[in-house]
Design brief:
15 helices, two-stranded antiparallel ribbon, 369 residues, globular, mainly alpha
Length: 369
C-alpha cells in the first residue's frame, strides 16, 4: 500500500524513492510484523485466560506435558496472522498476483486451523475438526488459488531441480500435444502446500520448537524470492525468473518478524501456544512460498526438520500396523527424545541448530548450479 501511495512522490523528494526498493520495504515489513505481534500478545494472552481458551493436552502425551502445560492459552496464531497480513498489505506491492495468492493460502489455512482450535477448546476435546475435513479444506484452498494462477499464466507449470543448472521438468510438455498435463503441476503444488502445513502442525509440540524452523525457512525463502524476482540475479544464478516474486520477500520476512514477536511469549516455558490456527497457516505459507518462487524441492532441504517430524509419524504408524512394534518411543520424533530423557530446551535448541544448517545448505545449492 505504501509503495503505491508514496513512491510516486519520489519525483518531488528523493526520500520517497526508498519505497521503490524491496530491501527497504522488506526490512520495515519485518519490523512492523514484529511490533504488531509483540504489542498484541499481552492483551490477547490475558483475554484468552479470562475466557479459559486453554490448550487441550492429549492424554497419551508425555506426562510432563500433562503436569506443566495444562492451562496454557492457545490460538496464538491469531495475532501472528493479523500482524503478517497487515505488514504485507502495508509494505508489499498489491498489484502483484503472487502476493494475493500467498495471502489467500495463508489466511485460508489459518481459518481451517481456527475452526479446529475452536472445536477443541469449546468441546474440551483434543480431537477437534475431523482430519478429512481439514484435508479437504486445505486441498480446496490450495487447488483454487494455484489453479487460478495456472489458468491465468501467473504460474509456470515447471519444476526446477536443485544442484542442476537450467534443469526443469515442464509438466505441460511431458507429452506432445498434452498441454493439459500442466494441471498435474497444480495437483503437485496442492500436495506441497498441504504437506508443509501438516508437517509444521506435527512439529508444534514443544515450546518454541515449530516457530524456530519456521523463521529460518521463511527467511531462506525470502532470499530466494528476492533472487527469483530479479531478472539479472535469476539469470546469473540459473534459477527460474518469476515476475513479481520479489514482493514475496516482504511476506516471508513478515513471517520472521511475527515469529520473533510470538517467540518472546512462546519460549520455554510458554505463556501461549500457536495452536492449529498458527501451525496450519504458517505451514501453508511456507508451501505457497516454495511453489510461487519455483523452489519446491528446496523446501524438503530447508524444511528438513518438518520433514523429519512428519516422516517419524509415518514410519511409526507403518511399523506398528505391519509388525505391531514401534520404531520410536513416541512420535513425532521430538517426543522420542523427551522419552530418552532430553530436556525440552535441549531438544528445541538442537532442532533449531539443525534448521539453520539446513537453510545454509539450501542456499548453497543456488550457487552450486
Amino acid at each position: 500500500m505504501l509503495y503505491h501511495l508514496l513512491s510516486p512522490l519520489a519525483e518531488q523528494h528523493s526520500f520517497f524513492n526508498l519505497f521503490r526498493y524491496i530491501t527497504f520495504r522488506a526490512t520495515w515489513g519485518l519490523v512492523t510484523a514484529l511490533a504488531i505481534c509483540y504489542l498484541m500478545f499481552p492483551s490477547f494472552i490475558q483475554w484468552m485466560k479470562n475466557k479459559r481458551m486453554e490448550q487441550i493436552i492429549r492424554d497419551d502425551g508425555p506426562q510432563s506435558h500433562i503436569e506443566q502445560k495444562v492451562g496454557t492459552p492457545t490460538m496464538g496464531g491469531v495475532p501472528m496472522i493479523v500482524s503478517i497480513t497487515l505488514s504485507t498489505l502495508l509494505w508489499a506491492r498489491l498489484d502483484q498476483p503472487v502476493v494475493w495468492m500467498a495471502l489467500i493460502i495463508f489466511g485460508g489455512y489459518g481459518l481451517i486451523g481456527f475452526v479446529d482450535d475452536w472445536k477443541k477448546v469449546m468441546q474440551r476435546n483434543a480431537a477437534g475438526l475431523a482430519g478429512r475435513y481439514k484435508m479437504l479444506g486445505q486441498f480446496g484452498i490450495a487447488g483454487g488459488v494455484l489453479g487460478w494462477g495456472y489458468a491465468t499464466g501467473v504460474i509456470d507449470p515447471s519444476l526446477a531441480l536443485p544442484f542442476f543448472k537450467n534443469a526443469t521438468i515442464q509438466f505441460d510438455a511431458l507429452l506432445p500435444g498434452a498441454a493439459f498435463l500442466g494441471w498435474l503441476y497444480v495437483i503437485f503444488g496442492m500436495f506441497v502446500c498441504n504437506g508443509s502445513s501438516n508437517a509444521v502442525n506435527l512439529t508444534d509440540g514443544l515450546d518454541g520448537l515449530a516457530i524456530g524452523p519456521t523463521m529460518t525457512t521463511a527467511g531462506t525463502f525470502g532470499i530466494l524470492a528476492y533472487l527469483a524476482g530479479h531478472a539479472n540475479f535469476a539469470q546469473y544464478l540459473a534459477i527460474p525468473y518469476v515476475g513479481g516474486a520479489g514482493e514475496l520477500a516482504i511476506f516471508a520476512v513478515a513471517i520472521v518478524g511475527a515469529g520473533l514477536g510470538f517467540l518472546w511469549y512462546n519460549t520455554f516455558p510458554a505463556q501461549i501456544f500457536m495452536g492449529d490456527v498458527g501451525s496450519l497457516a504458517l505451514g501453508g505459507a511456507l508451501g505457497a512460498l516454495a511453489v510461487l518462487t519455483k523452489h519446491e524441492l528446496l523446501l524438503v532441504i530447508v524444511g528438513g526438520v518438518f520433514v523429519m517430524e512428519a516422516l517419524s509419524v509415518m514410519i511409526q504408524v507403518a511399523s506398528f500396523k505391519l509388525t505391531g512394534k514401534r520404531v520410536f518411543k513416541m512420535a513425532p520424533i521430538h517426543h522420542h527424545y523427551e522419552k530418552l530423557g532430553w530436556s525440552e530446551p535441549k531438544i528445541i535448541v538442537r532442532f533449531w541448530i539443525i534448521s539453520v544448517l539446513l537453510a545454509l545448505v539450501a542456499l548453497s545449492t543456488v550457487k552450486v548450479r
